[in-house]
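Run Acyl-coenzyme A dehydrogenase through structure prediction, thanks.
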Amino acid sequence: MSIVILIVIAIIVLFGVRNIRMQFITRPVFSFFKKVLPPLSSTEKEAMEAGDVWWEGELFRGKPNWNTLHGYGKPTLSAEEQDFINNQVQTALTMIDDFDIVHNRKDLPPELWQYFKEQGFFALIIPKKFGGREFSAYANSTIVAKIATRSVSAAVTVMVPNSLGPGELLTHYGTKEQKERWLPSLAVGKDIPCFALTGPEAGSDAGAIPDVGIVCRREFEGEETLGLSLTWNKRYITLAPVATVLGLAFQMRDPDGLLGDVKNIGITCALIPTDHQGVEIGRRHNPLMMAFMNGTTSGEDVFIPLDWIIGGPQFAGKGWRMLVECLSAGRGISLPALATASGHVATKTTTAYSYVRQQFGMPIGHFEGVQEATARIIANTYQLEAARRLTTQGIDLKVKPSVVTAIAKYHMTELGRDVLEDAMDVQSGKGIQLGPKNYLGHAYIATPISITVEGANILTRSLMIFGQGATRCHPYVLAEMEAAAMEDETSALDRFDSLLLGHIGYAIGNALRSFGYALTGSRLGSAPVSGPTQQYYRDMTRISSSLAIMTDLSMLIMGGDLKRKEMISARMGDVLSQLYLASATLKLFEDNGRQQDDLPAVHYVMTERLHLAAKALNDAIRNFPSKIAAVLLRVLIFPLGNHFNAPSDKYAVDLVTGMLKPGPARDRITFLCSDVEGDESGIAEVEQAFLAKYAAKDLYKKLKKAQRSGHLKSKLPMLELFDQALEKDIITKAEHKQLVEADVLRLAAINVDDFDKI
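Sure, done. The structure for Acyl-coenzyme A dehydrogenase is below.
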């Protein structure tokens, strides 16, 4: 007992007496920390400093405050936004014939271009005082998604001016003169913008752009002017072939010191009219046959005055931070909106199609193999809608959540790909035959575009999500890195010492919480609600604690090498991502008023999210470079094994059964596929067949019963079956008419387009 007391006293002295702590703990740890500190490039440092930490910070730190999540409120549309969707958007949908756009015109029809311009579709984010709509991120997302249910090409055309580009950069950073010159003309479509960032040698590594602007003096409009000689070569630039104003990112250099002592000023953004002398707009690209405008632009020794820099000369060299902050908002709106639209279309049409399409005498939606794929479609769509709402809500709260939007961009585009692949599998021939009735083909073909643009998904997952999240969201690491960078050694040690005790307590708390939750099945955790979702909150707190302690141990052991351990980094990023997606799911359930018919989707999604988060943790531990540390992590995180299983077959069957009928739950995750007046598209066709057949479900049951009893023959063609049932007075004339009309719609829905020649 006396030995234990002595040990306790020694620990108290070691940590409690500052001089002793500084000599034996702080100084050695500080020295070690500086050695293992991951080196940051200037662009990485700017990315770290840009944007804000939002809900992902709570998830990362091991003890999320769930009341904070629910305190964000429910995203809503203003009366003006709802009116625009009900009128202008609905009208635009009637003007879209995507088959004609893609296969015949290779462009939007002139009347649709004009309508988009006149009605402010290109001005959704521009302030009202400049003639714009100034809509919320949630409204922007909803508008783009609704258009995307009918045409990817039309949706991309609308989303680009409202995403990363001149409009957004000018709104946030432009000078008064720049805003007054450009925003009104952009708002009414008099000017069409594009933004040129990507080039042949700079894709995901946009910070390495070779395009350059050299500070120099030349004559401009009759006067000697201080400006830039620009040379660039850009590709993959959406709207470039039709743009009248070009946003350009380049490396700004001042070799002659005309602005000061700094030679390499850094990435800068400028705004240039495309009719300016020397600007070249090249030929179009063909992005997987989609008809939105995409192409090249270049220029050699093009002179512009310094005040064409976005924000003016004082923003020279600040382009990367500007881009990161604006890109984080755009990535959370545009591409996630396309993915969510794919989910809504896939769910609406696959549930309808699998009900009207029959094989072996029954709807294919009753086969468990089909139900397995259909359950994934429905669950992923619920997840997509949940993540769309939470992410745009963060943007509307005026935060710039760069980690959250990276999560949204990567995981939502991947989920969009998943739902389309499953929908194609279920609808098979209906999905692969292109034509005016095909509602899946173009979105399926275009899916890789979303995967590769605005940061390739592979690098977003392996470098950005955890790479930025681990440093930005950690309550101590970023401050410790700043202390390590201080020039005054004494001040640095004092600052580090003040952080170290808190960091140690934080790590011990997460380790104990993770271990305790693992031993008790998360029952020690708190939850903001009771009932069927309570356990999910507890399990997420457990996984959050596990991620926090694993992050600390990874940084301690791997240090700067962690940045190069991309597979482990990606897996830990997956844990954070799954927690974020699960948070969005639970919040959507609460926002919808805890609807009981949503529970099958919630159970499936939450089980899948927790399973994937635990799997990512388990895989990271299994591949951890230090085997001793791996054993410790396994003891702390999975002392009794990993029991987070994938969704059960029962969950899948329950989810699909509830969706193979019209109802509020189905409407809530298919509402983006709005009815359009005079709609003759394949979406409307299969939905009408579904509703007609469902309305006659009792009559079909009556026919089945008569067949089983021998009053009607089995395996008869539908129309012959109906006729026999009428002859034998099993059904009435009115019922016979209802069945025939439903079958006409059914046959139209399962048929595909054909052509004289292609």
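The radius of gyration is 29 Å.
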